[in-house]
Amino acid sequence: MLSKIALNAAAVALSALLVSAAPTQLLKRDVSVVTRCNNDNQVALTWDDGPYNFEQDIAGRLAESGSKGTFFFNGNNWDCIYNHVDEIRALHAAGHTLGNHGWSHKDMTTLSADEMHDELWRVEEAFIRILGLKPRLFRPPYGSYNDLLLSVLSERGYTGCIIWDQDTQDGNEVPAYVSKGVYDQVNGGDIVLGHSVYDSTANDVVPYGINLLKSKGFELVAVDTCLGSQGSWPYEYMGEPQSGNWQC
Asked: Among candidates 160, 162, 149, 84, which has minimal Cα distance to 118?
């Protein structure tokens, strides 16, 4: 009798453990860690760390070539996101994809779950106010992620943790010719990392890269487009855009 009771207790304990573990495992599977496109005829150009002063310059270059890009925004890094409401709305209206890059560009792997939630929701709140949309794509600062972050992202409804396979190194403030050399090495299906906060990136490197890649026959698309059937709408609709005098 005692052995049967012990076995039953062990079974109950194991069942409870599996129930408690299952949601975390499921949440991790819900978020794809993406480093490449699924279509070798496409390239995804992406820029981090804005909004700042040069996103519209980049958007203009993209428009000239009939291309789309992806911008991952912080809330309060180079500037406060609320100082760029009109620019953000214009980028969205032009068909570019906008994603979350964390409120203050912290290495997410150094944070607790609560701190991760804080970094994410502050940017989400800004998107909801400005666009009426909640982002579903996240790029971790420094490309640094762990299982805890993936679980938090899935809990918040994200579908993609977007990394890259070509880094233009402009974030290290290298000379423009170094970043151009990276574009020389880009292949079909690559996701290219740049930073929209530098004049030289927007008005020297990006025009070079776009012209080069288009001359090779690549289609330049937003990252959710290049994922093909794996991709999904990169937002969750939350209502109409709002108006207000918001501050960081």
From this structure: 149
CB of 193 closer than 8 Å to CB of 209: no
Extended beta strands in the chain, E state: 32-34, 42-50, 70-73, 97-100, 133-135, 137-138, 160-162, 166-167, 191-195, 219-221, 235-237
Query: Considering the entire predicted model, what is its pTM?
Result: 0.88
Other beta carbons within 10 Å of 179: 26
pLDDT, averaged per 10 consecutive residues of the chain (248 residues), comes to: 38 35 46 96 99 98 98 99 98 98 99 99 99 99 98 97 98 97 98 98 98 98 90 92 96
| Secondary structure (DSSP) of 117-161 | HHHHHHHHHHHHHHHSEEE-EE--GGG---HHHHHHHHHTT--EE
The secondary structure of residue 166, as a DSSP letter, is: E
Q: Are 75 and 104 in contact (CB under 8 A)?
A: yes
